[in-house]
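Morning!

This is the sequence you dropped in the shared folder:
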Amino acid sequence: MAGFGVNMLKFLAPKNFLCKFPLSVGAISASGLALFIQIMLIRECDQCSRSIWRNAYGFSVVGIIYSVIMLFVHIGFLWGVKKEKSSIVFGWVVVTSMWVAQTFCLLIVFICLYNTQVRFISWILSLIFGLLAICILIYIVLIGFGFWLELKEKKKNANVNIAG
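The structure's back. Tokens below.
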């Protein structure tokens, strides 16, 4: 049964970034986007209402620590892509997958929490745009996974050429 899941992930992993560019470009772009998101989470938001800060991560110590840790994870991924370190890339895939799962759970919780405070059409639009954002994040993780598979295959071919 576990083989089916791995084969499915290999099937879903993109071979190119946006069907045109190499996965290394996609991995660097994904890292840049993730760094931007984390920096925006850490920055102070003057336009945000008190409700948003209180309910999301706010100025809580846990939220700031989490954002700083994720910032270092994304910087490490950028370094791992440049140096072609497959273990660093795979570590980023695992940690970022957990980040996406957490974001999905927060999306569901917030939609359920505020469903009575907004109109139905606003609720549906929030759900649609939230799911669209989750799909983009999943694609970014799949780019990292595809790049990891590419590095692993390159390393295996290098070992076969040395032995042969």
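Headline: The first helix runs from residue 2 to 12.

More detail when I'm at my desk.
O.
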